[in-house]
Amino acid sequence: MPDRLHITGKTEDRPTDRQILFEGAVLSILAHVLESGTRIDIAASEYLAKFPIDPDELHIRADLIICVSDCRHLLRHTVGALGSLHLLLDDTTRRWRETAPSQRLSPQDGATRIQACIGNIRRAIAPRS
Question: Does the CA dihedral 123-17-19-90 come out positive or negative?
Fold first, then answer.
C-alpha cells in the first residue's frame, strides 16, 4: 500500500494533530483503494497494521471505513464523466494539504471526527471559487 500521504508525528496531546493524521490516513487509504481495487475494509486494516494511528481508539477502523467510503462517493459524484478519479484525488489531496488550520473543521469545534473529516475533504474536493 502506498504511504505517500502518511503523516508522522507525535499526537498525544494535540487533538488537531490526531484529526490531521486521521484525515491523511483517509486520503492514503482512498488512493490505495482507487489504485488497486482493494476493498475499503481490507485497505483500512492494512493501513492500520503499518501505521497504527491512535491505537487506543476502539472505533478508528470503523471511522476510517465510513470516511473513505463517503469520500470515494463524493469523488465519483464530482468527477462524473468529465475526468479522472486519480487526478481529482491528487488535486483534492493538494488542496487539503494547503488548507490553513483556521479553515479546518475540528472535533474541538463540536463536530465528530467523521463529520470534520468528511467536511474538510469535501471542501478540498469542491473548493469555492
Answer: positive
Enumerate residues 6+ apart whose C-beta is below 8 A from 62.
none
Cell of 45: 486494516
**Are 22 and 64 within 8 A, CB to CB?**
yes
Q: What is d(CA 66, CA 47) in angstroms, rounded to the nearest whole number?
A: 15
3-state secondary structure of 7: coil
For residues 69 and 62, what is the distance between their CA atoms, to the nearest angstrom?
A: 11
Q: Is 84 exposed, middle or buried (0-12, 13-18, 19+ CB in 10 A)?
A: exposed
Q: Is 102 exposed, middle or buried (0-12, 13-18, 19+ CB in 10 A)?
A: exposed
Cell of 53: 494511528
Q: Residue 76 carries which side chain, given as an amino acid letter?
A: R
Q: What is the pLDDT of residues 6-52, one digit of tens each?
A: 444 444 446 678 899 999 999 999 999 999 999 999 999 999 999 99
Q: Which residue carries 463529520 as its cell?
A: 115
